[in-house]
Amino acid sequence: MKKLLFTIFCITQIGFILVYPTEALKAAREGLNLWLNVMIPTLLPFLICTGILVQTGLISRLLAPFKTLWKIVFDISPAGAYAVLVGMLCGYPMGAKTTSDLYENGQITKKEAEYLLTFVNQSSPVFVRTYLCQICLNDRVPFLKMMLILWVSEWMTAQFFRFIIFRKKNYFGEETVMKKETPATSSSEAFLDVSIMNGFETITRLGGYILMFAILSACISRWYIPHNVPGYLLTGILELTTGLYRLQPLILPDITKSILAVFLTASGGVCIAAQTRSLVTKELSVRSYIVAKLLNGVIAVILILLVTKIV
């Protein structure tokens, strides 16, 4: 089934490029521009620095003084708390990438890693301020209010999986087995070299996904002609940034536009889900992640309705 879907995807992309080369080229340029001017300057330094921190194994020590807080709020280890902080500050898909790195380095268990994946992937404050609040909603919803809604929805999603799906599993108390260091990874120079190469590999992979989904979005826009709310919503579900940008000119009630925008931002979309799957080790399942993002989108919509006194 997966091979069939990938085959249809590739044939559709190739057909669109051959039939509408101008539109395909424009979409590709937009995707590459986003990757080159936004993704690389903002994410690559974080990828390198977080890679170094994970490989040194000092994260648990740095966050250990607050282990009681992590236990109460999320029931996670200090190392797992680092993935939460990275996800909150750096945005998609850094939380999932950091979680996978921590697991592969033996600093968290598989159970904790899969639990973390349900809520560590979030939109960064920079993305929320620029794309969501300013570009899409024209500052009709204050940035701090929107950020609080998204953070609370992530926390509520985490509690759902903590107490209902992953109940009776104390992640914080489980021991992890540190992987044995090899001489090639024991020096500071090796840490830096490995982190730089991993960072460039990751950012290049993300660029490929952005490029392909930008062309797919243009393909759907050309053939489906999404000049209505369902069409733009479909575009946003496929690729978040494009969807938010196309919601901006729509003449809709403020609350309707806010609901659509916050759902897309909280759920992430197909492109981010594909990026997450590519960055997370195959030893970890992402099924709970997909369910969690849909639940997170619904909770965020309910919260924005409550905040705006509609419900």
What does this structure look like?
The chain has 311 residues and is an all-alpha fold. It has a domain at 2-42 and 123-169 and 188-307. It has helices at 2-19, 21-56, 59-63, 67-73, 78-90, 94-104, 110-116, 125-136, 143-165, 188-224, 229-238, 240-247, 254-267, 270-279, 287-307. The chain is globular, with a radius of gyration of 20 Å. The relative contact order is 0.13. Mean pLDDT is 84; it is low at 180-185.
**Largest β-sheet summary:** none
| Rounded average pLDDT | 84
Based on secondary structure, the structural category is mainly alpha
Number of helices: 15
Summarize the structure.
The chain is mainly α and 311 residues long. It is 75% helix and 0% strand.
